[in-house]
Every structure is written in C-alpha cells, then in structure tokens.
Amino acid sequence: MKNKFEFKDFPKLETERFILRKGTVDDCSDIFELYANENVVKYLPLNLFESVEDAMVEINWYEKIFKEQIGLRWVIEEAKTKKVIGTCGYLNYEKEHNRIEIGYDLKPDYWGQGIMQETLGKIIHFAFTSMEINKIEAKVEPENKASIRLLGKLNFNVLFSILKSEYIELNEESRL
Ligand SMILES: CC(C)(COP(=O)(O)OP(=O)(O)OC[C@H]1O[C@@H](n2cnc3c(N)ncnc32)[C@H](O)[C@@H]1OP(=O)(O)O)[C@@H](O)C(=O)NCCC(=O)NCCS
Fold it and tell me: Where is the N-acetyltransferase domain positioned along the sequence (predicted)?
C-alpha cells in the first residue's frame, strides 16, 4: 500500500502567526509549564507533570513516535515572540487504514484567540496532502466543550463509543 509517512527530516510548518516545529531539549521548561497546569491536563490522558524530567520524557516520546513513523508532534512557537505556547500533532497511525489520531493543547493564557483553529487547519491540510492520510480521528471527553467546539469548526463529525466500565455500571443499575 502506498505510504507517504516517510519523512527523512521532521516536517516544519508555518501559519500566519506560528511556527510548527520539532520539540527539543530547549523546550523542556515550556512543555513542563504546559503540562504542570491542571486545566490543561484535565481532559488529557496525562498525569500532571511534576518536574522538568517529565517534560524530557515527553519530548523523547515525540522523537520515538516520529522515528517509528506512528506519529508526529509539533511544538507551537509564536513567530513574533519565539515562545512555545502549546503542541499539536498525530499519534497511533494505522497504515492499513491510513487513519491517524489528532491531539493538541495550549497554555491557558492563549485560549480563545483562534490559535488552535489556525494551527490544526494547517496540520489537517498537511495530513491529507502530504501524508496520504484518509481519516483523522479525535478522542474527546464529552465535557471538553472547547475541544468539541474547535473540532466542529474544523468540520469533524461525531463518533460514539461506550466503555466496558460504563456498560457494567449501567447494567448493574438496571438490575437493582
Ligand atoms: C481545546 C483547546 C486546544 C482550544 O484551543 P483554542 O485556541 O482556545 O481554540 P480556538 O480559540 O481556536 O477556538 C475554536 C472555537 O472554539 C470556541 N471555544 C474555545 N474555548 C471554548 C470554551 N471554553 N467553551 C466554548 N467554546 C470555546 C471558540 O470560541 C471558537 O469558536 P468560534 O470561532 O465560533 O468563536 C484549548 O482549550 C486547550 O488547550 N485545552 C486543554 C487541552 C485539551 O483539552 N486538548 C484537547 C484534548 S481532546
């Protein structure tokens, strides 16, 4: 099967206000600040970061998924200030189905300024035009209104699911 997920170098992208680039050791303190914030990790499958070492582990993971060609994670750098304000990217690439999952987060000071809409717009275009991706999925908690609104603006449709724990809980309740 045709597979264009074969980048020799990490792809650097640009939007009007931001540079999307590979994360490096120099970004550790920004990544730490990002994920040491309770409001950022609230709906993410991540524990609150407790030290800069946690950020180093995260950046190493970005490197690993890129090398294994199962994902790409960009850090979002504000072009004007050179500050790293968040991350976005892809994980869990399934070659057989040309399917991938999207992930994203921003420091709270930057929420509500159309930043993620701008950056995701860029990486979605990139996935469909340069990575041979056919389907992009997003896993979102129903309470994460900002993320749901953002995905709606980007024309994502709803996907339903049920967890085993929810199924058991509901069925136990109906037996009472
Ligand atoms: C989700 C998140 C990335 C949104 O980024 P953002 O840059 O603030 O989003 P945007 O400014 O591009 O907003 C996109 C749309 O969502 C709306 N929106 C943003 N925050 C919202 C909120 N808290 N409640 C309702 N709508 C919201 C915006 O108003 C905009 O819609 P509009 O153009 O009609 O006004 C940000 O809230 C975040 O980092 N959250 C924590 C991490 C996280 O949950 N990531 C997603 C995991 S699935």
Answer: 18-176
- Non-local (6+) Cβ contacts of 35 within 8 A are 41, 44, 46, 48, 49, 54, 55, 58, 105
pTM over 0.70: yes
Whole-number Å distance, alpha carbon 66 to ligand 1 midpoint, is 26
Residues with C-beta less than 6 Å from any ligand 1 atom: 40, 43-44, 104-106, 111-117, 140, 144-147, 149-150, 153
CATH assignment of 13-175?
Answer: 3.40.630.30
Q: What is the residue-level pLDDT of the chain in tens, covering all 176 positions?
A: 455 677 889 999 999 999 999 999 999 999 999 999 999 999 999 999 999 999 999 999 999 999 999 999 999 999 999 999 999 999 999 999 999 999 999 999 999 999 999 999 999 999 999 999 999 999 999 999 999 999 999 999 988 888 899 999 999 866 65
Domain residue ranges in the chain: 13-175
